[in-house]
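Tokens as discussed.
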């Protein structure tokens, strides 16, 4: 039986490491949110927005740099360096949250450490995704992308109720310290990797020159450019509400406890879980522009329901839809880009995805600031309806996006000229 990407030893190791990190990342972020709500109750919305902004600005700054590194250096070594740095920064965050040595200034140090951690992640992600074709080959690429998403999303619904329970039972700093045990598993897995995947960027120019080349290449390809634009639209307008400020919304607007929040948030995880397995069994849909368009429209519609609902079951259903649609968006967009991009530019183009995530997190700050002034019940609907308006416009105006994966290369070139 053909097991797709799983028949490759190197991919199985990489997948296991990704699953472990995916399990602890939401736990770390939500634990920081709970810590802020407990220590700074009068400014929790603003400080959670600043936390998201610190992550977003780092991913915005380092996303392009990480893409250039992925195209210049041996990607396996980049991955190992990033995991060691991640463990060191995480230890600093745990010590700060446990001992709180600086009084009210602790929040400033937390924001700095969060900035560094997110910047490190923005370097890791392009190297990880750009190495995948070298590990599994183009034949199993769609399978690999889907399985990576499955590994992330299977752990997600398990992590959310656990983090709510742990934060009810012990101090947030201790919960954060527990998450660092994952790196005792991740670092040996990365050390066992033996694949060779060295970037093919033009070394006659510097890193900034490589970044500029990647941006010009992205803009010149109608399909890749349309995919990146729509992903950025979803991340910037759609995610700051339910994703970044969702914990505050559920605990303060819907009145849920941290444990109840964990189970409510699990519905997002269940949506991602179902979507991941849907694409495992229908992997031929992952590389089609129509799949991406439908996923994006589902996300916007679910965000609108989420923003207007005060009924717990309806909010849970909308949260499920958001999770399902987000996986569909990321699987389809990543597959389309990976199948289209040239090997020489792979790292730099894939580096635009953490950049989009950075813009999403950065957008959490103005959203939280506006929420502090006008209230989250006003801001959430504005963001949700704006998501539908912008993504709908991109889908309508960009035929290359709709036809991706459904036409031959020659026909795609014609579509590119029409754009």
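Sequence:
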């Amino acid at each position: 039986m053909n097991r797709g990407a799983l028949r490759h030893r190197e991919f199985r190791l990489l997948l296991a490491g990704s699953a472990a990190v995916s399990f602890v990342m939401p736990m770390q972020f939500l634990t920081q949110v709970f810590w802020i709500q407990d220590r700074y109750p009068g400014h929790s919305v603003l400080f959670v927005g600043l936390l998201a902004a610190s992550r977003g600005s780092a991913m915005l700054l380092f996303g392009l740099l990480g893409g250039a590194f992925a195209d210049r250096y041996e990607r396996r070594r980049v991955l190992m360096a990033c995991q060691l740095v991640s463990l060191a920064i995480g230890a600093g965050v745990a010590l700060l949250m446990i001992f709180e040595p600086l009084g009210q200034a602790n929040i400033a140090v937390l924001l700095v450490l969060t900035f560094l951690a997110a910047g490190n992640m923005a370097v890791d992600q392009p190297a990880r995704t750009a190495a995948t074709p070298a590990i599994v080959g183009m034949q199993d690429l769609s399978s690999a992308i889907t399985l990576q998403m499955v590994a992330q999303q299977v752990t997600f619904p398990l992590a959310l109720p656990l983090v709510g329970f742990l934060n009810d039972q012990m101090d947030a700093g201790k919960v954060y310290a527990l998450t660092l045990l994952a790196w005792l598993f991740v670092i040996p897995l990365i050390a066992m990797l033996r694949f060779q995947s060295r970037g093919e960027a033009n070394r006659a120019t510097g890193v900034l020159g490589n970044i500029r080349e990647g941006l010009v290449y992205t803009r010149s390809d109608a399909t890749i450019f349309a995919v990146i634009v729509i992903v950025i639209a979803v991340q910037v307008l759609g995610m700051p509400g339910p994703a970044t400020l969702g914990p505050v919304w559920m605990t303060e607007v819907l009145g849920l406890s941290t444990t109840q929040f964990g189970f409510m948030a699990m519905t997002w995880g269940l949506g991602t879980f179902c979507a991941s397995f849907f694409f495992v069994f229908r992997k031929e849909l992952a590389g089609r522009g129509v799949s991406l368009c439908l996923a994006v429209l589902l996300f916007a519609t679910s965000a609108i329901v989420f923003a207007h609902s005060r009924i717990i079951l309806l909010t849970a259903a909308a949260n499920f839809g958001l999770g399902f649609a987000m996986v569909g968006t990321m699987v389809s967009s990543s597959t389309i880009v990976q199948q289209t991009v040239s090997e020489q530019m792979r790292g730099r183009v894939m580096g635009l995805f953490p950049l989009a995530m950075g813009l999403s997190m950065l957008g959490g700050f103005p959203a939280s600031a506006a929420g502090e002034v006008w209230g989250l019940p006003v801001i959430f609907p504005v963001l949700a309806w704006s998501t539908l308006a912008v993504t709908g416009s991109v889908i309508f105006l960009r035929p290359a996006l709709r036809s991706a994966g459904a036409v031959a290369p020659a026909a795609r070139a014609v579509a590119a000229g029409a754009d």
